[in-house]
Specification:
Layout lengths: L2 H14 L12 E7 L4 E5 L12 H12 L4 E8 L9 H10 E10 L5 E5 H4 L15
Parallel strand pairs: 3-4
Antiparallel strand pairs: 1-2, 1-3, 4-5
Bound molecules: tetrahydrodeoxyuridine.
């Protein structure tokens, strides 16, 4: 990951933070997923008055990437309005796992742009995968 590129991604994530729709928690989150072709897809959390209908920023970004075609993620960046780094929730770890290659990096961005990185395997050991060819169909 080149430093100049990372700085630009962090700046874009910070620019997008106000766009998060988070009137219930007040926590704004933005995420970028980088696919293996080097493209970047961005998303923010979108809450709903019916709370479980809310969508995390990572899930939003994954939906944008899948919509555009590329589906193999090699890196995920997450920024938030909180004073500490935010790591993807459990559900988003599984969603990232579904679309990522082994060793996919999760980069958590702190309030002053400081970065911490973990692999998806560190965040989700023994993640659940189904081979579509072998998936049981009922
Ligand atoms: N949230 C995300 O968007 N991503 C995460 O990784 C953690 C939590 C959102 C969900 C909810 O809108 C708000 O942050 C507070 O939980």
């Amino acid at each position: 990951m080149s430093r100049a590129n990372t700085r630009a991604i962090v700046a874009e994530l910070q620019r997008l933070l106000p766009n998060a729709h988070a009137p219930y928690s007040g926590v704004h989150v933005s995420a970028a997923v980088e696919t293996t072709d080097g493209r970047l897809y961005y998303g923010v959390n979108v809450e709903n008055a019916a709370y479980p209908q809310g969508v995390c920023a990572e899930a939003s970004a994954i939906s944008v990437a899948v919509t555009q075609g590329p589906t193999v993620i090699r890196r995920v960046y997450v920024a938030s309005s909180l004073p500490e780094q935010v790591w993807p929730c459990g559900g988003c770890r599984q969603k990232i796992f579904e679309f990522s290659q082994a060793g996919c990096e999760i980069v958590a961005i702190g309030p002053n742009g400081e970065l911490a990185t973990r692999t998806i395997e560190q965040l989700l050991p023994l993640g659940f995968r189904l081979d579509p060819a072998k998936a049981p169909r009922v």
